[in-house]
């Protein structure tokens, strides 16, 4: 079974996808982390975030891997754990630009489809239900107000130990800007699939969102 969970930044996709995958013993694939890893690779190589050819070359050179450690999924590149670095404000500010590059998206989508293979998977991102897994049995589209997403992101920074001087207002402005970039890019824009179930998580707890998604999946099992 393939389950696609899409939605804008900080709508809670990764958090609930991990929990749902664990409850069902499905494989979880965080596609957003893959594009963030590409952005980290570009930064570490000192590349312009719009240099498509050079970034693709660096990504193929360094590679991107998911490994499980301490009970959670870790992201590695060039043999180094970059799980914290991919969540920093600088990477968040530039990942939309990198993820909009055609060859980068093609490379990542190919990797994502290979990962899905013959296993039961839950994959989250922005174009999973429309582009990566268009035939997924269950498609979920999570939404939430920009303010609530900014508050969640600031809390996430604190929980991960990521230092930031940004205020909630500044983070909200960044999220709104990313929403615009993601939904207006030429290649695989952020878009709700026609057959996706929309869930507004603004006033919902994580547990409530998880239960709602589980109920939709159980209808297909």
Task: Please give a structural write-up.
- One of its GO terms (molecular function) is ATP binding.
- It comes from Lactobacillus pasteurii DSM 23907 = CRBIP 24.76.
- ATP binds at residues 7-15.
- Belongs to the cytidylate kinase family. Type 1 subfamily.
- Its EC number is 2.7.4.25.
- By secondary structure, the chain is α/β, with parallel strands linked by helices.
- It has one domain: 3-Layer(aba) Sandwich (Rossmann fold), CATH 3.40.50.
- Helices cover 51% and strands 17% of the residues.
- It is built from nine helices and eight strands.
- The chain has a five-stranded parallel sheet, sandwiched between helices. A three-stranded antiparallel sheet has the order 3-4-5, covered by helices on one side.
- β4 (72-77) and β5 (80-81) form a beta hairpin.
- α1 packs across α9, α2 (31-44) packs across α3 and α3 (52-62) packs parallel to α5.
- The longest helix is centred in the last third of the chain and has 17 residues, at 168-184.
């Amino acid at each position: 079974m393939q389950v696609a969970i899409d939605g804008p930044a900080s709508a809670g996709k990764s958090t609930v996808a991990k929990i749902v995958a664990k409850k069902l013993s499905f494989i979880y694939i965080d596609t957003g982390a893959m594009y963030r890893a590409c952005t980290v690779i570009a930064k570490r190589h000192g590349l312009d975030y719009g240099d498509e050819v050079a970034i693709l070359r660096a990504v193929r050179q360094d590679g991107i891997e998911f490994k499980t450690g301490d009970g959670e999924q870790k992201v590695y590149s060039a043999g180094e754990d970059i799980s914290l670095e991919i969540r920093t404000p600088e990477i968040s500010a530039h990942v939309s630009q990198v993820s909009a590059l055609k060859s980068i998206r093609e490379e990542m989508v190919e990797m994502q489809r290979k990962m899905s293979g013959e296993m039961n998977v839950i994959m989250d991102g922005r174009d999973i239900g429309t582009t990566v897994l268009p035939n997924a049995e269950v498609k979920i589209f999570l939404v939430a107000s920009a303010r609530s997403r900014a508050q969640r992101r600031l809390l996430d920074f604190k929980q991960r130990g990521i230092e930031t001087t940004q205020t909630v207002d500044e983070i909200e402005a960044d999220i709104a800007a990313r929403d615009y970039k993601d939904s207006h890019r030429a290649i695989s824009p952020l878009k709700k699939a026609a057959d996706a179930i929309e869930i507004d998580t603004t006033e919902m707890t994580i547990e409530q969102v998880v239960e709602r998604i589980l109920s939709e999946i159980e209808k297909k099992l």
